[in-house]
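note to self: dont lose this again. the chain is below, predicted strucutre after it. 139 aa total, dont forget to put it in the shared folder this time
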Amino acid sequence: MESLHLLALVERRDIWSLRDLRKKHVLWLKEMRRKILAATVGTYTKLDEDQLKLYVHYQPTYYHFHIHVVHVALEAGATQAVGKAIGFEGLISQLETLPGGDEAGLDSVSLTYGLGESSELWIDVFEPLKNRGTVSLSQ
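---
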């Protein structure tokens, strides 16, 4: 069970990544968390909720909002790397404490994330900047 890694895909088509989340989504996110945990421990009966952690990626691997569910003892590899994995509970808390009304969202929050050297963004933009101090915008 310690190698458990599940993906919860949401049915909504209006949320592609955490950048689309707004304060108005907090109740939905809490309900998703409740359902995901209940379904996981209901399926894997030797697990307790406190043995699970939930997170989302930024930037995501693909743009259909999804939530990772892993065992707390799962070795934190690249998928759980700092600067890539955003804890689900922290995400909800951040939304709850944003100033503004229901439309305030994570699109206005500064987020940093790790970028691997095999990433197209690294290869096409940041590596040329690092090596030459400039980027060619020609296609």
